[in-house]
């Protein structure tokens, strides 16, 4: 079934196909006082289906399930994940997200809003985002971290499918801890992006990009030192209780291995 047909059959999305769809998902975990995290809010619509899956003891674990093709041109998708005070929440996805060109003119938007309240823990680690040829996607990720909270945020982005030129991808990541800015950066790749993105000072021909952000109270007391992790990744301390690992690789498989190794080194 084609993407257009799938959209027309999904009665939960009433926006006409030619204007792009609007869809949102919301996840909230709350501690029950007995060391178990519950999910009082678990809702999604259109392509953003959400399912509870088995997690570690006491942890709430959720998977995002792609229920239909998205994001396409003109779409606006929003995912909100919240860990209430003392809660433990892990969010993953069942498959890669594929950005494709769509009939409506203009870019697709994918907004991720993360909130980690006091003494809570949130792991955000979905599968790769693939920017297919002809697509235009703007991703915005914003994380707010409270006092004593812990965040692991992992992003993997792949420019084009195998043997394919990339679409246009703009990605902005902002992280705050107790209202203080820890990280605010933007990356633009593909046709129309500022010159040099693929040059020696940019991706240098690599087609997979990854980021790992850790925010932990102990990192404020004992910051890591800036250093390379092999030839494809680097760790940078943030101005506060956090660190950033940035990695590039020739493909998605190698990127996954590099980030897995980085997690082991920095204690993720």
From TrEMBL:
Function according to Swiss-Prot or TrEMBL: Required for maturation of urease via the functional incorporation of the urease nickel metallocenter.
Family (UniProt): Belongs to the UreD family.
InterPro entries in alphabetical order: UreD
Cellular location(s): Cytoplasm
Pfam family, one: UreD
Principal cellular location given in the protein's record: cytoplasm
Record field: transmembrane: none
Domain of life: Bacteria
The protein's assembly and partners: UreD, UreF and UreG form a complex that acts as a GTP-hydrolysis-dependent molecular chaperone, activating the urease apoprotein by helping to assemble the nickel containing metallocenter of UreC. The UreE protein probably delivers the nickel.
Keyword set includes Chaperone: yes
The protein, known as: Urease accessory protein UreD
Keyword ATP-binding: no
UniProt KW keywords: Chaperone, Cytoplasm, Nickel insertion
